[in-house]
Amino acid sequence: MILGALATAAMGLWPGSAMAASVFVTLVGALVGLGASGGIALIALVYPSNMCSTGAGWAMGMGRLGQGLMPGGFALLLNGHWDVQMIFLMLGILPLLGAIAAIYVVRKGAVEARGAGLRAHALR
Asked: Which pTM does this prediction carry?
């Protein structure tokens, strides 16, 4: 996701180059898409097992909502005379926030697992 954030931010650096756009769109699709798919696996760490499908559904639904709204949002920013480089730099923040959230969930889960292991060992 972090590499996807960098690729997203870099998309605005060469706004007139079809080749650069093709490369960065491919990188964003692969890196952010794979990162988001991996994020679904983290749902098992966050939600109890009887709620995993609900958590996955909401996460995927919010992603689809963003995919649907973003073209209009991009058009509004362009209509508001925002610089293309600034728009892509701002868009790069979103996968970066996703990466930070995933790192937090993984670390929190590891700390809780270690704590549970210590408690289980103390009970023996």
From this structure: 0.73
